[in-house]
Every structure is written in C-alpha cells, then in structure tokens.
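Notes from hallway chat w/ T.B., transcribed later so I don't forget. T.B. wanted the structure written out for a chain they're using in a teaching module, and asked if we could keep both sequence and structure tokens in one place. Agreed to drop them here.
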Amino acid sequence: MLFIITGEVDERIIANLMGFLEATESMNKFKTDDLELTALNDGNQATVTIPLTRQEMIDDLLDLLVSKLLLQVLYLYSDKAGNNFQAIAYSMPYQDEMYVVRIASHQCGIIDEIHVDFYASIETVFTFLKQELERLEQPQPDLDIEELQRLDAFLINFL
C-alpha cells in the first residue's frame, strides 16, 4: 500500500485513514494501492478517492459499510429520473474515527469509487454534516429522498 500525501495533515487523520483501510480490508471491495490523501483546511481535514475492485450498486455498498463499519447514513437520494444518486454516511465521532464517506453515481446507482473525508476536529465534521442535513430538510421537489437522518438523531451522535 502506497500513500501520496499532498500537503501537511494532522496525525489523527493518518491514524483514521489507517483504521478505515484496516476495517475495510476484509470486505475485498476497495483498491488501496497508490492512494492520494489531499490535505484541506490547514491540515485539519483530508480527502481520498478510493476505487472499488468492481462496480457495485450504491444501496448494496452503503448497506455493507453500515453493517461492517457501523456508519450512520445521513442521507441517500436520487433525482426523479433515477439516474443520479448521492449518499453520505459518517462514523460515530466518539470513537475517535471522524470520517465521512461520500458516494455519488451518475449511472442509475452504479458506483466505481468512493470519496472519504477524514477530520481532525469534531467541530469541522459536525458543521459539514449539519449543513448537508439542513440543505436536504428544505423542500426538494426534484429529488427522491430515500433516507434522511432526523436532526435529533444526528445531534445525539455528537453529544
């Protein structure tokens, strides 16, 4: 496994990345060779794109991540035509593993990569997720929202 790190990142982010890769290794779903971790927000956040070993349906991969990593699904939605899907799932911050898995498909739910954002600050991950949740709590006539975490359930995860 080779990492290319662009920019300086907090050591907690490297630990979170290593923990994520170790936890997902037995799934045999991800290609973890030559990953590039890109620092954001002065090194308090970093993102990595991880290709899948083969194409998967977004629902199936999301269910697997939830069952194996105990992630919380913030939302899953598609456009009315069913062509474009987006999902966000996140780790429980009290476990000292602060990361967000972003999944998007423009092929009727078929995906071939995921994006994982790692955080060194609970405030940063909380702010991002809360903004995403508030955005979808507004009327979205062009979207079919399949799953949306309630605000109170979300807030409990950060207490």
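Follow-up for T.B.: The chain has one domain: 3-156. Might be a good example for the class.
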